[in-house]
Amino acid sequence: MTIRVALIQIRTPATHAAALAHVTPLIRQAAAGGARLIATPECTNVVQRDRKQLLPALLPLDQDPVVQGLCDLARELSVELLIGSALVRREDGGAANRAVLVSSAGDIVATYDKIHMFDVDLPTGESARESHAYTPGEAAVLAHSAALGPVGLTICYDMRFAHLYRALAQAGAGVIFAPAAFTRPTGEAHWEVLLRARAIETGSFVLAPAQGGFHEDGRGTWGRSIAIAPWGQVIGHLDHDEPGVLFADLDLSQVQAARDAIPALRNDRLFSAPGLGVSKAAE
Description:
CATH architecture: 4-Layer Sandwich
Helix content: 25-40%
CATH superfamily: Carbon-nitrogen hydrolase
Radius of gyration: 18 Å
Number of helices: 6
Strand content: 25-35%
Distance between the termini: 29 Å
């Protein structure tokens, strides 16, 4: 039996109200197409790179109009919804880049704060310092989806840290989400190869809904949302950066088949890292 999911590709505007209006019709389209779980990208609720404008506008999760609007929409459509991330105010007053899994009853069942901050100076001259705005998460999150069973939650830059994906797979995730707002130069060079590698080495479905195109704040994102099977084959992709819906039918039996064929998750061994003493592979 296959489970239909949908990945939403968007170009989030710079205000919450406009963001909700932008993503809602695409989610309705996905539900009408039979998707049981619908996933949106990183920064679903707002894209604004001017921190002086962004940070004062952030709200706690339970007050964010996009998050609450999408919880209502999930309830109305009777679908599970992964808000790939919402930029929200933390309980301590800081900011978080937070993934939110919503049940078909409209309830928040799991959240995950992005662990790895995108602090880089790219060869193109583009710089980013995500840690200047957000407090990183400290824990990997395995959530339960009614449609898909155990799922792993990651966000964007996390995909460069293979040990996080391995830990999620070894904890039981057969599907790992990688919602993103990938830059255009790194997207062109690394997007698909990184995601296929994470799928192959964990024997997991990797689902990556993406932001795409040039946003109101001048930011450019890569798009090319993609769904990858546990053996590494691409089972669906958008070949552009325009808003749209990508459907993928997941045969969850492929997870165990891939892991039985290449039992890498069971073959970890203790080893001594150079100069660091004994290291244990992720569990």
